[in-house]
């Protein structure tokens, strides 16, 4: 855990000095007063300054950024990590050159990375947060591709009058398919099979 000890004329002065050096806000730290300021003889001889220890709080967001930074360094990848915290969610987007290795086949490596970061960053945290990781906007492009596929295969199922079985997908991608087609009155969707081979069936309504 990162912390520093600083002195000042008052406790507030010492805290402000520490916050400026750590480049964080008061809400992001725990403050321990090591020594209160005291006046010496005649009010000024032997005056003792206040001394505080300021520790940066460990949060899921900070843990996630730190872990991703270490992974990127080990893989010799030069990236920018943008992090946005929203209520119960943490949205992370990684940008940089040649990041296909982090995405993997149909996002499998990215999903594994996201799972690992969720486990590690939320460990021992009182309040868990769901962490979503994207790379160069891959997930949005994948979502668009899946929606187009869903519409195409739904039309195929309706025209041929028989079920169309999609390849196995993870729960997030299956949700995209189900959501894209839920408003149609000529077909319906359901899932069958066990993870990780669970797949969607698009069936025409009789």
Count the DSSP helices. Answer: 6
* SSE arrangement, N to C: EHEEHEEHHEHEHEE
How many strands appear in the DSSP assignment?
9
CATH class placement of the largest domain: Alpha Beta
Instruction: Kindly identify the CATH topology of the largest domain.
Output: GMP Synthetase, Chain A, domain 3
What number is the mean pLDDT? Answer: 89
Number of separate domains: 3
CATH architecture of the largest domain: 2-Layer Sandwich
**Which secondary-structure class do the elements indicate?**
alpha+beta
Proportion of beta-strand residues = 25-35%
Name the helicity range. Answer: 25-40%
User: For the largest beta sheet, what order do the strands appear in spatially?
Assistant: 1-3-2
Which regions contain 5 or more consecutive residues with pLDDT less than 50?
none
Describe the 3D structure.
GO terms for molecular function: RNA binding. Belongs to the KhpB RNA-binding protein family. Residues 140-206 form the R3H domain. Keywords: Cell shape, Cell wall biogenesis/degradation, Chaperone, Cytoplasm, RNA-binding. It is found in: Cytoplasm. The protein has 206 residues and is α+β, with helices and mostly antiparallel strands. The protein has 3 domains: 3-56, Defensin A-like; 60-136, GMP Synthetase, Chain A, domain 3; 140-204, Ribosomal Protein S8, Chain: A, domain 1 (2-Layer Sandwich). The chain has helices at residues 11-22, 60-74, 100-103, 108-121, 138-160, 171-181, and strands at 3-8, 29-35, 50-56, 80-86, 89-95, 130-135, 164-165, 187-192, 199-204. It has a 3-stranded antiparallel beta sheet, with helices on one face. A hairpin with a 2-residue loop joins strand 4 and strand 5. It is elongated, with a radius of gyration of 26 Å.
